[in-house]
Fold each of these.
Amino acid sequence: MDPTRSAGLDRAHVLALEWLDSLAGRPVPPRLTTDEVAQRLDPVLPDGPTDAATVVDELAAACDPGLTAMPGGRFFGFVIGGTHPAALAVDWLVSAWDQNSGLRVLTPAHSAVEDLTETWLLDLLGLPPGSAVGFVTGGTMANFTCLAAARDEVLRRHGWDVASQGLADSPGVRVVVGAERHDTIDLALRYLGLGTPEAVAADDQGRVEPAALAAALEAGDGRPTIVCLQAGNVHSGAFDPFEACIAAAHDAGAWVHVDGAFGLFAAASPTRRHLTAGFETADSWATDAHKTLNVPYDCGLAIVRDRAALRAAMGMHGDYLIFDVAGEPMDKVPEISRRGRAFPVWAVLRALGRDGVANLVDGFCDHARTFADGIAAIDGAEVLNDVDFTQVCAAFGDDDHTRAVVDSMLADGTAWTTGSRWRGRAVLRVSVSNWSTTAADVDASLEALCRAAAGNPPTGV
């Protein structure tokens, strides 16, 4: 092998293993600020070349103190998951292989793996066979992709072709959402030129109230309609009542999209599948494989029942491209150039198997239940949500004390838990989504929470 190439890879391999080995013992928050990390890097772009090993060493030395231990078992700040070892190893190959996976003829290896992974995912989640799965950058773009297909299709049913006529002078699209949908739904709608959606009432766990949805749909103005539902509220982890909501939406002629950024994989667990009952009758589903499935970043999944609708919204043609009659991977996603995202998804599914994915989901839920029970035992603490999935929201007396507990946890460094505001109260939020979290991690984090709630000085890891 070319020594110039191997030297950089060898150093990266060593430093990557050192980083992973450090996760069990290092404080979770970073030790330096953005400005402090910047001061460790040479601000002047050099005139000449620098060998790859030196570049790797320089970056690692400067950045290590500014890294958050997100891949470790004690990061509960956001629902972002970790990276399973099989997926990480294969992701290294993805970068080494350097395949632009947009065209089937150009990258048959990735296309074969993508086709198989698509079939596995639909089977695992109990979604309609033959649905299209697009591998996009993350949950936001998964929502965007599905809602683009929805927008174009509901307008097409009303005799309007967005591809040729644009949105100006169209009948418009009415989008109905729950009051506690995730903000990325609104963001995707803004990208799509659909504006602010119409919100209907949600219950005390953030679930859409079917009667409120039905009433809103009955009061419609005749415009093409999309209904967005949710599998996993970001605060409570709650799931919308899919059977009733989807039936009402379809009766009104609406397209139904399910935002399942982290909750969609509840369907893979026999003990949690009831949470998603009826969701398979929707028209599209979005999730982020980095979250509950624990593959590396840059891998959202946009799933659309009607393959033709997705291709009509996302596909393009160019005389210089080599098209295959079986259809192109790029016809299911916004990007033409993209990395081989299906490889790490295949790897984690192959490594875990059906039972392993179910155990992964159940483990997250069990840890969340342990957190809830431990927090409830703290004097003055209150768990505010029904802990049915992976989320725990807690308050520690009044808002000021709750915010102080959040700040104390970050200062302690044992675990990362995030502050938020839910239903008019300051809360501390625990999100369990990392394959490497152990019972010992949860116990240590609860001990830190007890210290923080009691106002004791932080001790760190």
Amino acid sequence: MNLSQHNQFSSKASQLLSWGHWFTFANIGLVLLISLSYLFADSPPTTAIGYVYMLVTWLSHTSFITFIAFVLTIFPLSLIFPYPRHIRGMAAILATCGASLLTLDAYVYFNLGYHLSSSALPEIVTLLWHRLTSSPGLTSLLAGGIVILIFAFQLLASNYTWHHLARLKQYKFARYASSFLLVCFAMSHSIHIWADANLKFDITKQDNVLPLSYPTTAKSLLAKNDLLDIESYKQAHNVKLTSQNINYSAPSPLTRCENFTPATIDILVFSSTANLDEFAKQHTDLYKTEQFLQAVDHQDALFSLIYGLPAYYKAVLMDEQNLPVWQTQRRSLSVTGFEDFTYINGAKTDGAAIRIVNADAQTTVRDNNTHIFAFSLATDNNSIVSVSTLYSSDKKVTRADGLIQPSDLIATSVGQYLNCPNVTKQSMLGVNLYSKKDDIGVNYSQGVFIAYKKDRITLIDSEGNYKNISAAQGFSIEQSLDIPFLVHSIKKLRTFTH
């Protein structure tokens, strides 16, 4: 009697484990479909090996975390509580919760650039609340519909695999698929180790794309980069950066602006938000954005605005009183009201194509055809950067995706309004907001390196201390240093060094 019961118990457990493997295969397909959104959230690879790595990592990593979820949940339940109907129902509910959570994480990553975490909860709640309040009916319908579809899939997969278990056991698909996924897993880690050691950013930049991803790294990531020192990389990610004794290498020969288009641009810089608000009340045709990221140090912010470069180059260019490279061909810039930049006298105020003015509430623009940018300098001295308000006469500028920096204003002015895009690309690190393709950027202020990606801003001081903060809310994000993204950003910062 006892032996018979034991055999019956073992038979049910064996059947459930066999069913669980096929149920997991079905969920691997669903997870692969959902995780496709991660691959489109960032800029794609630029090399063939980058695409190969993206493909094998997507296949192996998503399959691995799905299988681990099965091992940690359905597998022990099948051994402890081997009742098919109950187990299949609980498995469908657990799998629905997991797939729904993955869908939410994919949505957050696509919009904010980081995964679900307790430290980023305020910004995640803000994102979801904004989506819900902007279109409550549609959002509720979509969210509820996605959960219902996932649950329906789980029930269908659960019942189908159970009722056709005998026929499924005859297929050799599972054996071949498992072997293929293991090969992909090994390939992905092997490729990453090679890329990490040889500084192949096209591969290592994908480190943080998929959730719960912990790729293998080399002991020294940046041995060939003289700006970063990661001697204690495994222990503390000790990143050191300095702007002392840098050499600025001007682009040469500078591309001529063959299709220069006359235009007038007024960039009004206010010393207080009160004056800016008063000016905005008098000009109701201006458009507004709260995504303006600037250095708290006023000289650094103004340098970035005038030169289209981070303040990393400020010391060498201002000490030698070099004019911005982009305006040497056409004396089209005037800067008035700022003592630190009195050496820039490109043109008379009224005749300059671009006029940068220390403004107040009574400042007027030149005419109705003038392109206007207006913002106030930051007043928070307890931080390195600040996100504030920017007004513009150009609606498209204020609707640009992601953060806008002072260097982007001059880049847009020269590249778009004056029709000199080649000059902008060759001489600035600012981005023409009309052709902005991704929500990433770099800056430098008060000895601190600044890099942002969507809502996440990374700050690294000269001692190697770093932190991640939310651009919208300002709170700290508990997330490890994104080394591949940092390497790419550092290289961009040092574009004009030699």
Amino acid sequence: MTWGKVRAWTRKHAAIIDVVVAVAFVGLFFLGYFRGDEKHGPPIERVDFAAAVHVAAAATALASLSLRRYWPERLLILDTIVSVAIMVATGYRHPLLIVTWMIVAYTFARTTGRRRVWLVAGACIAAMFVAAGLFGGSGWISPETFGLAAWSIAFVAIGDATRSRRAYIDEVEERARRAEDTREEEARRRVAEERLRIARELHDVVAHHIAVINVQAGAAAHVLQTRPEAVGPALAHIRRAADTVMQELGSVVGVLRADDGGGLDESTEPTRGLARLAELLDSFAAAGLRVEHRQSGTARDLPAVVDLAAYRIVQESLTNAHKYGTGRARLAITYAPDAVRIEVENPIAKDAEPNGSGYGLVGMRERAAATGGTVTAGAEGDRFAVRAELPATAKETP
């Protein structure tokens, strides 16, 4: 059996061990007490009274040592009362009760708050000191009286120091556990945020081009029998859109497979921004969406997170206009001194049935919130409108 298993067994059966130790301790004490010197014992001529004193001391010691883990304060007071009673009756300090008192006092100090320990133990020590001075026969200033008080105080102080040290160790361990839990929670939070960011990026990358492919494939199927010469341009649009999807997916997957495991960040994220707005509008025009673009204010460089958010909001808004609109949309971008405002409106097709997941609108709101901006989207009569305002000096929020 290993030492760890021995310690676990003793902790589990502490009460049994205390009883065995108490019986062995009291038995060995009296064995040495009476065999070592016949003069030991209280100075009492009546043998039956002397025996009663020893029986009372033995019973008190057995109870105190066996049950000290459960009621140390009560047993300490009991030990004190019995010791004082014997001292008053015989003028004799019973050594078994003295040793037992110190053991119980140590247990009491180790398991109880400092203020209560010193209040109760101090009262017990004072009671025994007074009884020893009045009835002990050696006087107030004898070495025995002062020695008894000094050793009693020492055992209480040792128990209190042990309790303080254990409390300090427990606090350190608890702090370490909380710190570990915090690190794990932070890691889980970062993983969840990164998964959300990746999902949002993949949606923005794929949705627009898949919509283009879908429209062009439908157009090709429509004109295949009547105007076969128009199928080629449609297939060319499909091929270019598919190539673009593959390239952008490759960029995202390349970031995910990076050796540093850092995920998507501004240094490695596929570069997108309002500077490439013309290219985005051309792709929509090729897919059959006529966009009326109007810009107010002087275009200028924006913080990377704002520039990317603005681009993705425009892309998602026009994608929805292409899917659920009549083929026309209006885009207005306003560069204000402290913000950039985006408005996208499109007529809603009468036969349009929303069949998307809704993640696109959620992604727009999340991107705007990440910059400290706002975005609203919803139907306004027979039109659908998206309005976003992003701070031009924003930094990404946590």
